[in-house]
Amino acid sequence: MPKTEFGICCRTEAVCQKYNSNFCSFEAPHNSTTLHMWSCPHTPLYCGKNEMHVAPITGKINSIKPQSNYLDWFKAGESCKYKIVFPSDAGRYDKIAVKVNELSNTKLMTVDTDMYKSYKFKENEFSKGDIFTFEYPNILFAVFLTNNTNELPGDFDLTYAYVDRNSTNYMEEDAIVEALGLA
Length: 183
Prior knowledge:
Blueprint: E1 7-8, H1 13-17, E2 23-24, H2 33-38, H3 44-47, E3 52-54, E4 62-64, E5 79-85, E6 95-104, E7 106-113, E8 121-126, E9 131-135, E10 139-146, E11 155-163, H4 172-179
Parallel strand pairs: 1-2, 3-5
Antiparallel strand pairs: 4-11, 5-10, 6-9, 6-11, 7-8, 7-10
């Protein structure tokens, strides 16, 4: 079953209440461009059916990338959105390691926060080759946005893996490198 949430872009609370959605852009912190954009619908045919990705407790590396014939569509301001969350068995000090493998004609904007409506968040923009982590119990909201003035298609590939800090004797950097298969 697809893990999808239905959001809506709206300027006022009254507009959001007219629609049956899980959340709306009006509920996002006013100073987070990424969370406002994350509420906007995307196209499952090209972005994938699952917006929410749960990192497997096994530490298996997972990938997020566009689907199907996306090169004909993913350009001129189109976007894909995802949410990466911890498995239910995760605990204090656990992390999810993320690596940006591909990013062309596309911007990756993320928010690391404990929930969509929280005013306590870290908003970042990442580049190809960047590796970063976020810590339990936070959620990573990610938006891949193509340049709206460029007709060249965008592309992206992001990998992520769960790092259980209680079950490893490695130093943190070594565990992250191993989790992403960089060793």
